Amino acid sequence: MSTHEGDLHVGHQFEDAEQQLDSYSAGMWLFLVTEVLFFGGLFLAYIIYRTRYPEAFVAAHHELDWQLGGLNTVILITSSLTMALGVRAAVLNRMKAVLGWLGLTFLCAGGFMVVKYIEYSAKFEHHLFPGPNFEFHHAGIDPGQAQMFFNLYFAMTGLHGAHVLIGMITMIILVIRLWVMRKQRIDFIPIELTGLYWHFVDLVWIFLFPLFYLVGGN
Amino acid sequence: MSAAGVATKQPEAVNYLNVDNSIKSWLLTEDHKRIGILYLVTIALMFFVGGIFAMLIRLELLTPAGDVVMSDTYNKMFTMHGVIMIFFFLIPSIPAVLGNFCLPIMIGARDVAFPRLNLASWYIFTLGAMLGVTSLVLGGVDTGWTFYTPYSSSFSHTPVIIAVSGAFVAGFASIFTGLNFIVTIHKMRAPGMTWFRLPLFVWGQYATSLIMVLGTPVIAITLLLVAVERGLRIGVFDPALGGDPVLFQHLFWFYSHPAVYIMILPGMGVMSELIATFSRKRIFGYEFVAYSSLAIAVLSFVVWGHHMFVSGQSMYLSMVFSVLTTLVAIPSAVKTFNWVVTMHKGHVKLDSPMLYALSFIGLFTIGGLTGLFLASMAVDIHLHDTYFVVAHFHYVMVGGAIVAFLGALHYWWPKMTGRMYPEPWAKLSALILFIGFNLTFFPQFILGYLGMPRRYHSYPDEWQTLNVLSSAGASILASGFILVAVYLLWSLRYGAKAPANPWDATGLEWKTPSPPPPTNFTQRPIITEEAYNYPIVLAKNGEPDEGAKQEEAEKHEHA
Questions:
Q1: Does B265 touch chain A (CB under 8 A)?
Q2: d(Cα A165, Cα A28) in Å, to the nearest integer?
Q3: Residue A169: how many other CB atoms lie within 10 Å
Q4: Cα–Cα distance measured from residue B132 to residue B80, given in angstroms and rounded to the nearest whole number
Q5: Is the confidence at residue A140, as pLDDT, over 70?
Q6: From the CA of A18, how many Å to the nearest CA of chain B?
Q7: Cα B294 to the chain's mean position, in Å?
Q8: Which residue, among B105, B287, B275, B108, has the nearest Cα to B203 in the 3D structure?
Q9: What is the mean pLDDT of residues A88-104?
């Protein structure tokens, strides 16, 4: 038994490893399509309310720290790179490299969440979380319209943050699986699928960052 | 297809039912056939609950005065009827039960691509259904099945969050089923099973799955936003919070109109199987029927605005939606005409599944054509929110989707259970359902045209005759459903053993024993011919008749 494809476990429903790989990646791509539509409803709401309340959105976005947002963008793009290198190492069956790259990706994801936590707590302190305690004082701006900006900010970055957490949990499971099956050839399919998912999470942030932190009119 | 598994005549052949009888083996099964059965049991229970509410509604409407229940209770009854029937019965009905059972066999696969995801979808669906029932036990929801904001998010005093969560959760079951089917159809077809050799049921399931995968996430996020708005007072729909309730309607109908095609497209797929089998002919214009499924799936996403002609959307937008909506009639008519032409000069056998198919053609035609009335803006302003809409919707959903579901259930019952049901009773019940259905819903077209609004528990005296007819029809309809349930359950124990191919049909599912072995086939099938490749039947003088000659010529063209 060398490092041949035949070593991979093939599910009873499949004829061979190739069909299995094809099916899994098709399934993952399709899942990502559903994710696009899941976020799509929120993006639509964003387009409508930003068009309707342009001044309020510009005024409200000054409350966000674009430097922290930019830092998180750099962190997530870096994590996409480390994830891609991890997938490559898995295909090449290099166990130590896989563990290293996955670990780095996990650290980046954790860093992202820490920055997000700092940002969120600042918003809570400044009464910018929507609801009865919301306060927004800015000449000529309706606080209700500014609240809509923060509604969407928390809904969209919150949903995105939940996806980052799910990604982190998945990475922990992957590492445990790799450790349990360390004697065998690396089953790279779950790592590749997690990679696809992770790039999607990164890509959503690439849209969220300019929409919330870099609203026009600076 | 000769290589497919042949039924062995031993008395105790291993099949998917008797391979392991323990409860654990059912609850942890990854077999698509068993998961189909699990879904069948679950949705049958939900249909029963939803049906009780339908009967209560018809009981209330027997007399003009609102005398059986208070108007608040009535609101809850029609809401729970709608929520349960749509989210927990119609949407999973054909795909999750018969699609799960038949689709992998029909394409010559051992299972769906992701069996564990398939089982997960059933658990998720059951959880969603339990949440739906919980909202019922807690007193019921009164928003209407459409959950319109801001009533649902700010004003209703009923457990809306629980009902909305139920629909949200069940949506993921739908996404998983759709995702599984698309990958299965793309990647798991047996050698020789090209796209244009697929049975049309599979094409129907494919188009349905596309809608499930593309539409359901949008309703999921929408319902989530309603729950958040209601629970935390953070919202994007409530005008008091700076939001716009019409945005909810757009997002809701962006899914919920395509969802109507999630319910009818699989039924159309079933129809093609039934018409071909019982006419003993290849479906006329196979490619057109196949593509028309995709056309309906695509069009379904660009017509949602016809639900909002009186919601204050732009008149020009309404005009576009009106025109696009009428376009749906084209692929629907392509299918209907091709089914009728398939029967022409075919050797039609009136077995009970075919009786359901004939019912479908008549009822769906009425349902579809009245849809055109509603797509026309001027007419719709008169008919909007009247019983005309209720009648139209039920002609498509009951007369179309449920009749097709029952036709499919009768057609594949011998395959699923290994037992034959009593044919005379089945024919009788098909007849009872047809009569009961028309008596229930045809008067509602007239009531709606006369202006009777939906969702009220009282009405002026002059409409009583038509309402009494409708309620009488509903009790006939209900007795028909009960009759079907009784003889199908009876047949499980006392029915004659089913042969592998009781209908003398083509298709891989009939080449494997009834019930099928756990892995569907004893040998991997290899497909060498078209779907519905029925032999040419000779006319009396021993020569093929004209129709048969044409068919033969067509076959050569395809070959």
A1: no
A2: 18
A3: 10
A4: 9
A5: yes
A6: 10
A7: 17
A8: B287
A9: 95
Kindly state the tokens that stand for A149. 């900006």
Q: Does the structure's ipTM exceed the value 0.85?
A: yes
Amino acid at A99: L
The set of residues, in sequence order, having a beta carbon less than 8 Å from that of B555 and lying 6+ positions away, is: B282, B530, B533
Asked if A20 contacts A10 with a C-beta cutoff of 8 angstroms, the reply is yes
Phi, psi of B538 (to 5 degrees): -80, 145
**Contact status of A51 with chain B (Cβ, < 8 Å):** no
Q: In three state form, how does the secondary structure of B24-91 look? A: HHHHCCCCHHHHHHHHHHHHHHHHHHHHHHHHHHHHHCCCCCCCCCCHHHHHHHHHHHHHHHHHHHHH
Contact B188 A13 (CB under 8 A): yes
Do the Cβ atoms of B201 and B277 come closer than 8 Å? Answer: no
For CA atoms B475, B479, B484, B486, give the dihedral sign.
positive
Whether residues A26 and B115 touch (CB distance < 8 A) is answered with no
- Alpha helix (H) residue ranges in chain A: 17-52, 54-61, 66-91, 95-125, 143-180, 188-213
- The CA distance from B505 to B519, in Å, is 21
* Residue contacts between A and B (CB atoms, under 8 Å): 104
Amino acid at A113: M
* Termini Cα distance of chain B: 16
CA-to-CA distance for B87 and B261, rounded, in angstroms? 13
Q: HEC profile for B160-221?
A: HHHHHHHHHHHHHHHHHHHHHHHHHHHHCCCCCCCHHHCCHHHHHHHHHHHHHHHHHHHHHH
> Could you tell me the pLDDT band of residue A185, with boundaries at 50, 70 and 90?
confident
Integer Cα distance of B214 and B261 in angstroms: 13
Question: Which residues, in sequence order, are CB contacts of B487 under 8 Å at separation 6+?
Answer: B421, B422, B425, B426, B429
User: Per-block average pLDDT, block size 10, for chain B (559 residues)?
Assistant: 45 85 94 97 97 97 94 95 97 96 96 97 98 95 94 92 96 97 97 96 97 96 94 86 91 95 96 96 95 97 95 92 96 97 93 97 96 94 96 96 98 97 97 98 97 95 97 97 97 95 95 94 91 76 60 60
Question: Which residue do the tokens 């068919």 mark?
Answer: B551
Cα–Cα distance, B518 to B17 (Å, whole number) = 8
d(Cα A206, Cα B519) in Å, to the nearest integer?
Answer: 46
Which B positions 159-188 lie with beta carbon below 8 A of chain A? 175, 179-180, 182-184, 186-188
Nearest one of B208, B32, B171 to B103, comparing CA atoms: B32
Q: Which two tokens stand for residue B22?
A: 């323990």
H-only helix segments in B233-351: 245-279, 286-300, 315-327, 329-343
Contact flag A33-B213 (C-beta cutoff 8 Å): yes
Residue of B nearest to A53 (CA): B242
Local structure of residue B376 (DSSP, 8 states): S
* Chain B touched by A162 (CB under 8 Å): no
Predicted pLDDT of residue B394: 97
Whether the CB of A60 is below 8 Å from some CB of chain B: the reply is no
Identify the pLDDT of residue A5. 45
| B264, B396 contact by CB (below 8 A) | yes
Partners of residue B116 in chain A, C-beta under 8 Å:
none
Beta-bridge partners for B544: B538
Query: What are phi and psi for residue B284, nearest 5 degrees?
Result: -65, 130
What three-state secondary structure class fits B453?
strand
